[in-house]
């Protein structure tokens, strides 16, 4: 009977089946209930005879029904299981369960959870504690040991993350936990992909008290990932990769999406048999390619199959301009030859119809280029000069190369980044004492800071910049003697760049070096493409707030609560605090992708160890326990037996004579049978749309800030509240949730005790409906902290208010604002947590305005001012959020004015006092009554 997929949890109970013959014999001796009949009395008396009566036997069908009922009960007590699974080895003192929950685990995450549930269930039956750890969580996450119930709760609360695994750190923690638990079982539920440091990680995990190992990996590695996407000359070139084990030919389609999620282009990528790389090109027009926001592989529900694009992936249109026509016989002497060769791989180059600047410059500007390169262009015609200046002010990047014409043309301060000396400098000539100069290290503040300076480049001639106080800030590259080689200046929304050498290899060997290509590529990336904002990278860059993240299933979602600002620079790792996605705002984003062009997928090799290893497959539990079904069938037979007894005893005849009673009994029996066979009664769902968001908002105390519509203000507000939250966690018992950006016209405001509102005159004026919602929020107990941030511009020359103060007056003019006063020395705000005489922020000197107390006189005997409730409004000009704001590394984003480290500390303490005031009200004010209460109690 081994072919029958049936097993029993308590097979010894089946010995009870041998009692069926005894039960049959007992049932045969049990007479049915006598049936009452009405006869004429005289006829009964006439038939009265003294004879012996024998009991009647029960009907055969009733005996069979009762035998089946007894067999079902015995079988149910034996705990039968259909399609039973083999018990997994979870013996020993503990079960250590380590699970990969990275991006590669997302497609079959449910199967992995089901496999882990079986392991935990088997361990729970044996009373074994469980250590459960996930390799894509924070290293300090709680891992146990837990009992089986708590371990299942942790398992079901986990989810796949769109980040790589961190096996070395997690395995080391599990090994530390196992150090005091001999002969433990270790279950490794891996994603099947190898990662850096795996060998050391497995050595540390399996060398500590491992009695046996359960090893689980996917049956096959069939995931496809998008490793690279480049905007080339003829289209968007894509590169997809797969693991080496997948050798069959395969075809996949990639789709390109714009910012609104609309699919605007397709490409097909083909994997040859045994190939691990497939390439394809989206051959669409240049303008359409610049609308790409993300590219994803169809059918791949994981983060590795999605690649987000920022402005650096958009191909620039670059105009080339020179006053010398190209010599076809001597192309190497053409001023634009090396520039064209350097830019053509990553830019679309456009040329005017001729060398006449009066016609060629307008022709280029009509094509709306992101950048214009001028090779030795001297004087620009007056009729086109202003157009070129306006183009730069509106976001264009003008790159100029020196030469004899530029050296003789004189200075043009509006189209050059620095003031030039007349003439040129010769190095290493026959009448010169100097020698050709090499390059020095690139300045840290420039865009070339992360590039290695070329060692074989020398400069023999150059144009010199006039020394000035700002020459160091404008220098992007230097010669060894300190003279500038490349200078740059931001002008309006655009940029001016000057190479102090020619574009051909007559003054220097820079144009024939590899560094020349990298320098031009970096400048192209800094240019503004069709008016889109760019993100500053390098040492001078600031951290960018999360904007749109890639979820583990590949969807673009809002940032999670644990995402932190990212410092944009090449090579930043993908972590749980910096998941893949877009960082920045609508005006400019930085793409932080999971994989790059050098990424590979290698299968994970099972470690060679000396303990027993059990290999299991990821699968759902196909076993079905039949105990409940057998019990339900036994109850049904019991009901049928009861009906049969009623029928044999004549009860049915009486029910026929009383139809109402019969119908009631029948309905009762049907209801009992329905309850017996219904395994899971339906439960009413009274949830409403928005309940989940409301629960998340009130799960922790959260400080809100108003979304002003000005990205810089909103990012500073969020970073400021994050800095205050960190200080609150370190110094108080309050553990606040992440900052909440609220749209005062749409979002629910009652969830937040405090709303920070930075006033910016450039932000749109709130609507009357939004102001009415703020008014209702304040009347219902909420507090709004208005920050004009204009302490050093609170009044202008004519004595009128600053623009920010004027905007605040316009807003308050539509609110029911109570009388205000600066925080008095004895106010509860000065003593809620820290003793503070003033409330500085990034600036100092502005008072903090609160609702005036009704009893401002006669308070000499009270250490704290009286008053019930909390002020619904606070006003300052000291820029609190600017002082609180921190980057991803916890460093301050903005300097205080004056630059005093203690001023930032006092600003954070002011934030703590404000939050304690919001949450405790006038608790400290009530403490003045304690002496009187103790005196009355006789203490």
From TrEMBL:
Start and end residues of each DUF4159 domain: 702-919
Tagged with keyword Acetylation: no
Domain Aerotolerance regulator N-terminal span(s) in chain numbering: 6-80
Cross-referenced CDD domains: A4_beta-galactosidase_middle_domain
Keyword Lipid biosynthesis among record annotations: no
Keywords attached to this entry: Membrane, Transmembrane, Transmembrane helix
Residue spans crossing the bilayer: 6-27, 60-78, 630-648, 660-677
Signal peptide range: none
Classification via Pfam families: BatA (PF07584), DUF4159 (PF13709)
Domain of life: Bacteria
Protein name: RNA-binding protein
Organism, as annotated: Manganibacter manganicus
Biological classification of the source: Bacteria, Pseudomonadati, Pseudomonadota, Alphaproteobacteria, Hyphomicrobiales
């Amino acid at each position: 009977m081994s072919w029958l997929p049936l097993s029993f949890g308590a097979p010894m109970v089946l010995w009870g089946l041998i009692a069926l013959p005894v039960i049959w014999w007992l049932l045969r001796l049990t007479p049915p209930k006598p049936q009452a009949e009405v006869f004429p009395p005289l006829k009964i008396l006439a038939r009265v005879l003294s004879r012996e009566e024998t009991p009647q036997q029960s009907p055969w069908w009733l005996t069979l029904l009762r035998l089946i009922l007894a067999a079902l009960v015995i079988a149910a007590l034996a705990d039968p299981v259909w399609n039973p699974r083999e018990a997994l080895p979870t013996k020993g003192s503990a079960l250590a369960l380590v699970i990969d929950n990275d991006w590669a685990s997302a497609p079959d995450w449910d199967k992995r959870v089901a496999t882990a549930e079986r392991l935990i269930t088997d361990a729970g039956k044996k009373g074994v504690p469980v250590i459960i750890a996930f390799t894509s969580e924070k290293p300090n996450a709680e891992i146990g040991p837990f009992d089986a119930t708590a371990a299942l709760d942790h398992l079901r609360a986990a989810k796949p993350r769109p980040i790589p695994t961190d096996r070395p750190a997690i395995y080391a923690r599990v090994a530390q936990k196992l150090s005091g638990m001999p002969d433990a079982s270790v279950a490794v539920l891996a994603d099947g992909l190898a990662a850096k440091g795996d060998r050391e990680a497995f050595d540390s995990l399996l060398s500590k008290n491992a009695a046996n190992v359960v090893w689980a990996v996917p049956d096959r590695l069939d995931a496809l990932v998008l490793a690279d996407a480049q905007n080339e000359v003829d289209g968007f070139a894509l590169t997809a990769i797969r693991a080496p084990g997948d050798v069959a030919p395969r075809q996949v389609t990639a789709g390109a999406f714009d910012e609104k999620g609309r699919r605007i282009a397709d490409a097909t990528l083909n994997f040859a048999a045994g190939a691990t790389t497939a390439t394809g090109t989206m051959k669409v027009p240049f303008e359409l390619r610049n609308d790409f926001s993300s590219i994803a592989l169809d059918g791949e529900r994981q983060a590795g199959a999605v690649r987000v694009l920022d402005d650096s992936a958009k191909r620039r249109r670059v105009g080339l301009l020179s006053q010398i026509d190209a010599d076809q016989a001597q192309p190497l002497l053409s001023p634009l030859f090396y520039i064209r060769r350097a830019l053509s791989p990553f830019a679309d180059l456009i040329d005017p119809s001729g060398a006449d600047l009066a016609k060629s410059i307008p022709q280029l500007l009509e094509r709306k280029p992101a950048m214009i390169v001028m090779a030795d262009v001297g004087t620009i015609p007056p009729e086109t000069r202003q157009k070129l200046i306006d183009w730069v002010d509106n976001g264009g990047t003008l790159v100029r190369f020196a030469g004899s014409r530029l050296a003789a043309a004189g200075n043009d301060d509006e189209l050059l980044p620095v003031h030039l000396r007349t003439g040129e400098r010769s190095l290493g000539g026959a009448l010169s004492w100097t020698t050709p100069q090499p390059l020095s290290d690139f300045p840290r503040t420039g865009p070339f800071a992360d590039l290695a300076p070329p060692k074989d480049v020398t400069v023999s001639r150059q144009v010199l910049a006039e020394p000035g106080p700002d020459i160091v800030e404008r220098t992007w590259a230097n010669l060894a003697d300190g003279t500038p080689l490349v200078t740059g200046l931001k002008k309006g929304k655009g940029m001016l760049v000057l190479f102090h050498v020619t574009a051909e290899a007559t003054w220097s060997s820079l144009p024939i070096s590899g560094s020349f290509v990298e320098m031009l590529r970096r400048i192209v990336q800094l240019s503004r493409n069709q008016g889109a904002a760019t993100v500053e990278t390098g040492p001078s860059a600031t951290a960018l707030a999360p904007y749109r993240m890639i979820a583990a299933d590949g969807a673009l979602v809002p940032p999670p609560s644990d995402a932190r600002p990212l410092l944009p620079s090449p090579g930043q790792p993908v972590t749980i605090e910096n998941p893949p996605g877009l960082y920045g705002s609508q005006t400019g984003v930085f793409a932080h992708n999971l994989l790059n062009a050098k990424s590979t997928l290698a299968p994970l090799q099972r470690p060679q160890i000396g303990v027993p290893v059990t290999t299991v497959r990821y699968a759902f539990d196909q076993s079905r326990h039949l105990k409940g079904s057998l019990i339900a069938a036994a109850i049904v037979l019991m009901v049928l037996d009861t009906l049969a007894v009623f029928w044999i005893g004549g009860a049915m005849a009486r029910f026929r004579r009383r139809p109402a009673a019969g119908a009631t009994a029948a309905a009762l029996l049907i209801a009992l049978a329905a309850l017996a066979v219904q395994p899971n009664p339906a439960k009413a769902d009274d949830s409403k749309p928005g309940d989940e968001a409301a629960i998340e908002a009130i799960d922790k105390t959260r400080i809100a800030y108003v979304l002003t519509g000005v990205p810089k203000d909103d990012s500073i507000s969020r970073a400021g509240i994050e800095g205050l939250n960190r200080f609150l966690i370190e110094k108080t018992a309050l553990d606040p949730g992440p900052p909440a950006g609220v749209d005062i016209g749409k979002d629910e405001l009652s969830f937040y005790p405090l709303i920070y509102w930075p006033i910016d005159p450039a932000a749109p004026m709130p609507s009357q409906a939004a102001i009415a919602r703020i008014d209702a929020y304040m009347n219902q107990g909420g507090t709004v902290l208005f920050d004009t941030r204009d302490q050093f511009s609170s009044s202008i020359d004519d004595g009128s208010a600053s623009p920010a103060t004027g905007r605040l007056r316009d807003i308050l003019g539509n609110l029911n604002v109570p009388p205000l006063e600066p925080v008095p020395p004895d106010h509860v705000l000065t003593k809620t947590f820290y003793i503070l005489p003033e409330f500085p922020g990034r600036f100092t000197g502005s008072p903090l305005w609160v609702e005036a107390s009704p009893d401002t006189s006669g308070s000499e005997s009270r250490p704290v001012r009286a008053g019930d409730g909390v002020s619904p409004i606070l006003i300052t000009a000291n820029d609190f959020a600017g002082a609180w704001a921190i980057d991803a590394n916890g460093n301050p984003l903005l300097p205080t004015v004056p630059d005093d480290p203690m001023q930032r500390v006092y600003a954070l303490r002011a934030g703590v006092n404000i939050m304690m005031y919001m949450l405790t009200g006038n608790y400290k004010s009530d403490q003045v009554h304690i002496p009187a209460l103790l005196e009355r109690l006789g203490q």
